[in-house]
Amino acid sequence: MTTRQPVDHHAAVAAETRKFTAVLAGFDLATPVPTCPGWTLAELVKHAGSVQRWFSVLLHARIQSPPKTREVELQLPASTDAYPRWLEESAAVAAEAFAATDPNLPMWAWGADQHARFWARRMLFETLVHRVDAELALGLPPVIDRALAVDGIDEFLVNLPFAAFFAPKVAHLRGSGETIRFRTTDGDADWLVTLRPDGFGLDPAGPTAGTTADATVQATAADLLLLLYGRRHHIAEAVELDGDQDLLSRWFANSAF
Predict the structure, then answer these.
(1) Parallel, antiparallel, or unpaired: how do β-strands 178-184 and 190-196 relate?
(2) Tens-place pLDDT, residues 194-223
(3) What's the predicted TM-score (pTM) here?
(4) Options 3.40.50.920, 3.30.465.10, 3.30.1050.10, 3.60.110.10; CATH of 151-254
(5) Which helix (H) or strand (E) holds 183?
(6) d(CA 60, CA 94)
(7) For the chain, what percentages of helix, strand and coil (3-state, to nearest 5) are there?
């Protein structure tokens, strides 16, 4: 049985934003970001802050259907030197939206959880992963709290089947009952994904002690999170792969988020 530490997504958005802006201090925001091809650090920050502000608008609106536009007032400063401070202000905008919205309020969401809490959780991992992008761009080793990493793995695997409208390759993740097990090596977190003729999905009960899978992916929680998001390569030394290699290759070729 997997034991997972609860995560305060609201507090974690603020904390990850502070880490993000601290990483940027003293660096040129024109620096390219290899894990987001074509982007600089300035564009990375703009994206992260834009997501926080857009999701905040959705929370205030209590949306009950897909939004017709992603237009939002960004209040973006003229100088990129002011972008880190603007990102901090974006987190403050998000905090106001969190305070005004019951996380259990029913809302439309593109993923599995049709409640306001979906947007706070999604905002957290948008912020965290892009903080890691900034660190990787600057040659800094990313450090991710294990509880956040475990929650992020779960959030990714739960929502990936719903992501086809912006990640169309996930439609190729079909099969005849093949299973992939994802396990952390620094704790007991464990997930089982099944590929079916009509799509794929996460077994909500998770693997049991006697569960066998066609393929298994193992790494620390932090490395497994970065692997799922394409920030670690599946042949990296930090990752252990067992079982059907063709199945694993198909997964990694089509699960980009």
Answers:
(1) antiparallel
(2) 999 999 999 887 887 778 999 999 999 999
(3) 0.96
(4) 3.30.1050.10
(5) strand 178-184
(6) 10
(7) 45, 10, 40
